[in-house]
Design brief:
single chain; 599 residues; alpha+beta; Beta-Lactamase; Rossmann fold; 5 domains; six-stranded antiparallel beta sheet; 20 helices; 21% strand; elongated
C-alpha cells in the first residue's frame, strides 16, 4: 500500500471527491457530496472510503480486488478540516512554557499536512528597535536563542504598519528584506518560506515562519492554513515573554535577598558595639549556642539590644541562609494571634479573602524571634507549646497539619519565673523556652561602652541625615553621658544622640539640656510615694482630718473637704484603723497609718 501526501493528488472540492490519474486509474468524480464520516462510495469498479481526512481507494475487476491505495485528503473547502487543524495546532503550540518544546511539537504535526523543515519564532521590541530570535525547531528538536538583531529606522516603520502589510505572505528567497537577518543567523540555504506576522490587539509583536528546502514548495492553500495560526502563536509568544519577565524578576529577587542578608549579617551579626568589653560574656554565649538548634531565651531591660543579639545568633548559625522572622507578641491583638502566628485558609473567618501564611510557616528552615514573649495570652501559650513539642502547625480553618523546622529565640524584659508562680505564664512553656538563657546587662552596668556607642550613633545618624560633616563629640559631652544612669539603656542613648545632632547646628554636641543627670537622692519616709491604694486612701483621710482639726461634720469638716457623707467618712476611718475625735487625731495611729513605699 502506497501513501500519497501531496494535496494535488487527491482533492475534496465542495464535498466531492476527485481521484486524479494515479496507479493507472482514470479520473472519477462523484455526483454527490462525500462527507468526512466514513461514508463508502462505489462506482465503476472503485470503492472509496473517507474518514478523518484519510481515504482508501480500492479497485476491483470481476469482483476481485486489484489495487488498494491510501491517500490524504486536502480539506481546503471543508469546515470540519479547518476546525480540526486549528484545534490541533493550538494544543501543540500552547502545550509548554518552554517555547522551543512547543515549536517542536507543532512542527511534527504540521509536517503531516504541508512541507516543513523548520519553524522559527521571532519577537519585535518597538521601544528598542530590535528583532529578537526567540526559538526555532527542526525534526531533531527545539532550540532557544534570545539573540537580538538591530533594525534600521525604515525597516522598523515598515514592520509596524500592521494594516498596510499582508499578515501572511509566501517568499522563495532567504534574502527577504524582513527576514534576511534571521536567515543569515541560522545559515539557511535556498528555501521556500511562509512568514506570518503576529498581530495582537492591533500591534505587531513578532513573526512565526515555516520553511522547506527548495523553491516553490508552498501554495495559496498553505498560506490560508498559516493564517489560522496568528492568534494561537501570538498568544503563545506573549505568554512566553511574560514568563521570561517573571523568571527574571524572581532571579533578581533571589539575588537581592542574598545581598541584603549579607549586608544585614555584616551590620548586625558580625560587628556589635561593645562585644569586646561590656558584652564580651554575652558574645561568648552567643558563639556557643549559635551552632546548635536549641531554643534561646534573652532576658534584659527594655532597650538593651535583645533583637541585635537574636540576629547575631541567627547569622552565626547553620540557618543563616534561611529567613529571620520577628514577632512582637505584645503588639498583636488576641483575636488575630492565631492568624498571625499560624496563618489561615480562605473563608476561615470574615475578611479572610485568601490563604495567608503564618509567621511560623514563613520561618521554615530559619529562625523566629518572639519579642515580649511574656505578653502572650494563656491560650496562645498553649498553642505555642504544641508547636514546640510536635514541630507542626495547623492554619485557622484548615484540616491538615504542616510540618515546620524552626528555631525559636524568645526575649522578655520581665521575670518569667515570677510570672509562672502567679499563673500568668505556663511553667512547661517557660522550661521549653529557657533551654539556654542569656542575660543582657544594662547600659549603666557597662558604662565603658558608652563612648564607643556614642561615636557609633553619631556616625550612623549623620549618614541617615545626609550631613556634610560628622559632628564632634567633646570630652565634656562624653563625661556628661558617662554620669547619667540611662534607664532607657542603649535605645535612650541613641535617641539622645539624634536629638543633640539636630540641636547642634554644626557645632560640637552638647547633652546638658537633653538628658537629666541622675544623682543618688536621699529622702525621708514621708516623701516616698505609696504604691498601695489603701495607703493612699489612709493618707488622704488623715490629711483631711488634720485640716479639719479632727471635725467630721459641719462647715470645714472632713466630710465637706472630702465631698463625702459624714457616715461614709466615719465608716472608712474605722476600716482604715484611724482613730478620730473632735479635738485631735491620735498621733501614734497617724504615724502607723502613713507609710510610704518607693516606686
Amino acid at each position: 500500500m502506497s501513501r500519497l501526501y501531496q494535496p494535488e493528488r487527491s482533492l475534496l472540492r465542495s464535498g466531492y471527491v476527485t481521484i486524479q490519474n494515479f496507479t493507472g486509474i482514470r479520473i472519477v468524480r462523484s455526483r454527490r457530496p462525500l462527507t468526512n464520516s466514513g461514508e463508502l462510495y462505489r462506482k465503476r469498479g472503485l470503492e472509496i472510503s473517507l474518514a478523518n481526512n484519510v481515504g482508501i481507494c480500492n479497485t476491483y475487476k470481476r469482483g476481485r480486488k486489484m489495487v488498494s491505495t491510501e491517500f490524504r485528503v486536502n480539506p481546503r473547502n471543508s469546515d470540519i478540516g479547518l476546525n480540526n487543524f486549528f484545534t490541533e495546532i493550538t494544543l501543540n503550540i500552547c502545550s509548554s512554557l518552554d517555547i522551543e518544546k512547543a515549536l517542536w511539537k507543532s512542527l511534527i504535526f504540521i509536517r503531516k499536512i504541508m512541507p516543513a523543515d523548520e519553524i522559527v519564532l521571532t519577537s519585535y521590541d518597538g521601544e528598542l528597535g530590535v528583532l529578537e530570535l526567540v526559538a526555532s525547531a527542526t525534526v531533531e528538536g527545539g532550540v532557544s536563542y534570545y539573540d537580538t538583531v538591530h533594525l534600521s529606522q525604515d525597516l522598523r516603520e515598515e514592520l509596524e504598519k500592521s494594516v498596510l502589510l499582508p499578515r501572511v505572505r509566501i517568499s522563495d528567497s532567504v534574502h527577504d528584506v524582513f527576514f534576511q537577518p534571521v536567515a543569515i543567523r541560522l545559515n539557511w540555504e535556498r528555501s521556500s518560506m511562509i512568514i506570518g506576522r503576529l498581530i495582537l490587539e492591533g500591534k505587531y509583536i513578532g513573526a512565526l515562519t515555516v520553511r522547506a528546502r527548495g523553491e516553490g514548495k508552498y501554495n495559496q492553500w498553505h498560506k490560508r492554513l498559516w493564517e489560522i495560526l496568528n492568534e494561537p502563536a501570538a498568544i503563545a509568544l506573549a505568554n512566553n515573554k511574560r514568563y521570561r519577565e517573571l523568571q527574571a524578576i524572581k532571579d533578581r529577587l533571589v539575588d537581592e535577598k542574598k545581598y541584603f542578608q549579607n549586608e544585614l549579617r555584616q551590620s548586625s551579626g558580625m560587628h556589635i558595639v561593645g562585644a569586646s568589653f561590656g558584652l564580651r560574656s554575652v558574645m561568648e554565649q552567643v558563639r556557643q549556642v549559635a551552632v546548635l538548634p536549641s531554643a534561646v531565651l534573652l532576658q534584659g531591660e527594655t532597650g538593651t539590644g535583645k533583637e541585635i543579639i537574636a540576629n547575631a545568633i541567627h547569622n552565626l548559625s547553620q540557618r543563616s541562609e534561611g529567613p529571620f522572622i520577628k514577632i512582637n507578641c505584645g503588639a498583636i491583638p488576641d483575636s488575630l494571634m492565631d492568624s498571625e502566628l499560624f496563618g489561615h485558609e480562605k473563608g476561615a473567618f470574615t475578611g479572610a479573602l485568601g490563604r495567608k501564611l503564618g509567621r511560623f510557616e514563613r520561618a521554615h528552615n530559619g529562625t523566629i524571634f518572639l519579642d515580649e514573649v511574656s505578653e502572650l495570652t494563656l491560650q496562645a501559650q498553649v498553642r505555642l507549646l504544641r508547636v514546640l513539642q510536635e514541630k507542626e502547625i495547623e492554619r485557622v480553618g484548615g484540616s491538615s497539619t504542616i510540618k515546620i523546622d524552626v528555631r525559636i529565640i524568645s526575649a522578655t524584659n520581665r521575670d518569667l519565673e515570677k510570672l509562672t508562680l502567679t499563673g500568668e505564664f505556663r511553667q512547661d512553656l517557660y522550661f521549653r523556652l529557657k533551654v539556654f538563657p542569656i542575660n543582657i546587662p544594662r547600659l549603666r552596668d557597662r558604662k565603658n561602652d558608652i563612648p564607643e556607642l556614642a561615636r557609633h550613633f553619631v556616625l550612623k545618624k549623620s549618614q541617615e541625615m545626609a550631613l556634610p560633616s560628622v559632628p564632634v563629640l567633646t570630652p565634656d559631652s562624653i563625661d556628661t553621658l558617662m554620669s547619667y544612669d540611662w534607664p532607657g539603656n542603649v535605645r535612650e542613648l541613641e535617641n539622645a544622640v539624634e536629638r543633640a545632632i539636630i540641636l547642634s547646628g554644626g557645632l560640637p554636641l552638647k547633652f546638658d539640656n537633653i538628658i537629666g543627670v541622675s544623682h543618688p537622692q536621699i529622702c525621708d519616709e514621708s516623701q516616698k510615694m505609696p504604691i498601695k491604694f489603701r495607703d493612699v486612701e489612709r493618707q488622704t483621710f488623715v490629711r483631711a482630718l488634720e485640716a479639719a482639726k479632727g471635725r467630721i461634720e459641719g462647715h470645714g469638716g472632713a466630710a465637706e473637704l472630702l465631698d463625702l457623707p459624714p457616715w461614709t467618712v466615719r465608716r472608712r476611718l474605722k476600716n482604715l484603723g484611724i482613730r478620730f475625735g473632735r479635738t485631735k487625731v491620735h498621733t501614734l495611729q497617724m504615724t502607723k497609718a502613713i507609710r510610704f513605699r518607693p516606686v
